[in-house]
Amino acid sequence: MSKKYAIAGASSRALNMYIQPITSTPEFGEIVALFSRHPNSAKNLLKDVENADFPIYGDFDQMIRETHPDTVIVTTIDSMHHEYIIRAMELGCDVITEKPLTVDEEKTNAILRTKNATGKNLTITFNFRFIPYNQKIKEIIKGGAIGKPLFANLEYYNDYTHGSSYFRRWHGQLKQSGSLLITKGTHYFDLVSWWLDQDPVSVSAMGTQKFFGPVREERGERCMGCKYASTCDFYWDITKDEFSKNLYLNTEKDTGYVRDKCVYSDSNDIWDAMSLSVMYDKGALMAMTICVYAPYEGWRISITGTEGRLEAEEIRTGAGSEKAEEVIRVIHKDGKVDEYTIKKGEVKLKNDTGIANYTLIGHNGGDQVLRRMLFVGDLPDTLSQMAGTKAAVNSVLLGAAAVKSIEEHKEIKLADLLTENI
């Protein structure tokens, strides 16, 4: 019997990651309902989706009682994840949630408390583990090419367009997103822990807000109708973006959500550049920087171990600059260099029935492989790509500890933020 899923949160991620793929792939299961705090506006999300004949609810408990889903998929804004994770488990459902698990330690502990009390399953979708390039890095390290990992250096960049987008949205507010240390950081915190096979123990961090936020005198509340539009490098006309216009602007009176907020708004209180030093439980260290106002997009990492060093990067310098292939370099102690080339274009999924090929869309193919493991489960998880609760909690607590470190100007131990058993 196919599983029944209910979606909590009428977001673009809900549409692209779950609703469209599940409704078009019967073996994934069945969506029985969609919950939204603004059900009338949520209709816009489904208007072009074939087979989306399930009801939209504005009452979460009523949805569960009437449609009896096996699993609730949580795709709300990050600061509300805990509400629907907890309530779904209390009502007898398993849960799949988008990353991050939540945005701070208090909500993390509340989720753990409920999970321990109900015994329900909780799955967190770290799609970056499934990207072929990232998977190859894991394979190389697990195979012993650099020996025991001792030190990692990670640089993460957003270009002006991508970086500014966070400050137009709810992500720009610390209470809503936990900062980019949660929104973006949890992706990479989890990747590094997975690559190293080590858990973070403590962090020291610094952060600044020098580029976005209330740093420019000529600012308004939103782009639409702004008198400074002609002189602002980040003016964005939401009416020219049909998807955003339909999903956000046309529903604004119902939701109250302004999608084209000024990137210089006083309400933006998160940092736009951050630096972290992290200690891990098996002795490794990581130095990490995040900057969201770079002229290019991507990340670079080096991981140095007892037998050598691995270097990898994914850098995009502008529109159309995507490479057809990426390279991973391993420099051995004797100076020998091995290069591994990962071609882009498709993901090959080996299973009992042969090989299924998927075009690389959705986090460079990560979403497709993740969905296969989530909803069909016919792929061997030899690299532990399906993240457990511990990994999800570690990634949030590392971000939350980094926030606290910036605010309190001291090293923070993750264990001091945890009150519940994992």
Any overview of this molecule?
The chain is an alpha/beta fold. The chain has three domains: 4-128, NAD(P)-binding Rossmann-like Domain (Rossmann fold, 3-Layer(aba) Sandwich); 129-210 and 270-390, 2-Layer Sandwich (Dihydrodipicolinate Reductase, domain 2); 214-267, no CATH class. The chain has helices spanning 12-24, 39-46, 60-67, 81-90, 105-118, 132-142, 160-168, 174-177, 180-183, 185-196, 242-247, 252-255, 366-375, 389-408, and strands at 4-8, 30-35, 56-57, 71-74, 94-98, 122-125, 149-159, 200-208, 273-280, 285-294, 297-305, 308-316, 325-332, 337-343, 346-351, 354-359, 412-413. α4 runs parallel beside α5 and α6 packs parallel to α10 (185-196). The chain starts with a strand and ends in a 9-residue tail after the last strand.
Throw out a few tags for this protein.
single chain; 422 residues; alpha/beta; Rossmann fold; Dihydrodipicolinate Reductase, domain 2; six-stranded parallel beta sheet; 14 helices; 32% helix; 26% strand; globular
